[in-house]
TrEMBL record:
This is glycine dehydrogenase (aminomethyl-transferring). It holds the Pfam family Aminotran_5. GO terms for cellular component: cytosol; glycine cleavage complex. Residues 23-127 form the Aminotransferase class V domain. Keywords: Aminotransferase, Oxidoreductase, Pyridoxal phosphate, Transferase. Its EC number is 1.4.4.2. The glycine cleavage system catalyzes the degradation of glycine. The P protein binds the alpha-amino group of glycine through its pyridoxal phosphate cofactor; CO(2) is released and the remaining methylamine moiety is then transferred to the lipoamide cofactor of the H protein.
């Protein structure tokens, strides 16, 4: 895009410290210099810092909004204006799109590019249940540079759907069809819910998160005291004074049958616990989670050793995480597998 308009000095991508961790990695892999933008005291992008950093070398801002603190950036209009004002593009990471379905359209806010995490918003599996998939949407002025081929429709024609190459396509990228089955599943999910249903998805997710936040805020530190979106971040710094870390709390939650929240991310919150209930959990489940978290807070004060040595009820206890990172085991080998139990006829 920049080459096409004769602008060859765009070497930098600005990334807020509250953005998704994949953003700086993506920019660096593409050959850009990554510059971090600090957050302000309310968890927004620091506007003064952004003004200082944005300039003629800025290719883009990669922002996650809502951000990884679970907060909507209160200055998003001004942020977009600053970046567009220096000729850059705004890329929105759609990781937290689940909070704004039917409520806000990033394109209307001035976002130029956005990827959609189907597994985070539109029901497709993730990880071992994958494959994952993340379609990318762009504004009209970038459409001609999209990877190809793409599907175009000739309504009433024969064939009606055909392959086509965008005018200035960057070419093929690996698996350029994407994971088609995931797209069909996500599309089905969207059509089943409809506009009203999708909005309710977000409203329920935001309501559930704020309910948990209200129930837990007195027992855990709340770094940013604001109404959250679909997730929120607590800090276990209070519990750490008794020797109980965020990781200990996560391990103890296993004893109650709960999948632990993300810990130690975002990096700007010490002993972070990122809690995201989603729209699907019942009030009974939310209350059970609250009860577990409150009990763990009590245990951290009265018997911290019990939390430090959790989990107690799982088949596998704590793994050696340092060794796991240093000696990666990425391939199944027969000698590492346990023998299968005999099956009666």
């Amino acid at each position: 895009y920049f080459d096409s308009i004769g602008d060859h000095g765009r070497t930098t991508v600005l990334i807020p410290d509250s953005a998704h961790g994949t953003n700086p990695a993506t920019a660096a892999m593409a050959g850009f210099k990554v510059v971090e933008v600090k957050s302000d005291k309310r968890g927004n992008v620091d506007i003064d810092e952004l003004r200082r950093l944005a300039g003629p070398d800025t290719a883009a801002l990669m922002i996650t909004n809502p951000n990884t603190l679970g907060l909507w950036d209160e200055h998003i209009d001004e942020i977009v204006e600053i970046i567009h004002g220096v000729g850059g593009l705004v890329y929105n990471d759609g990781a937290n799109f689940n909070a704004i379905l039917g409520i806000a359209r990033p394109g209307d806010l001035g976002v130029d590019i956005m990827h959609f995490n189907l597994h985070k918003t539109f029901s497709t599996p993730h990880g071992g249940g994958g494959p994952g998939s993340g379609p990318v949407g762009v504004k009209a002025h970038l459409a001609r540079f999209l990877p190809g081929p793409i599907v175009t429709r000739n309504e009433g024609g024969d064939p009606e759907y055909t392959w086509a190459w965008p005018e200035a396509s960057i070419g093929k990228i690996h698996s350029f069809h994407g994971n088609f089955g995931m797209h069909v599943r996500a599309y089905t999910y969207i059509r089943m819910h409809g506009a009203e249903g999708l909005r309710q998805v977000s409203e329920d997710a935001v309501l559930a998160a704020n309910y948990l936040l209200a129930r837990l805020r007195e027992r855990y530190e709340l770094p940013y005291d604001r109404t959250c979106m679909h997730e929120f971040v607590l800090s276990a710094t209070r519990q750490k004074q008794r020797g109980v870390r965020a990781m200990d709390i996560a391990k103890r939650l296993l004893d109650f049958g709960f999948h632990p929240p993300t810990v130690y991310f975002p990096l700007i919150v010490p002993e972070a616990l990122m809690i995201e209930p989603t729209e699907t959990e019942s009030l009974e489940t939310l209350d059970a989670f609250v009860a577990a978290m409150l009990q763990i807070a009590d245990e951290a004060e009265r018997e911290p050793e019990h939390v430090q040595h959790a989990p107690h009820r799982t088949f596998y206890k704590r793994l050696d995480e340092v060794r796991a990172n240093r000696e990666l085991n990425l391939r199944w080998e027969p000698q590492q597998s346990a023998p299968l139990p005999a099956v009666a006829d």
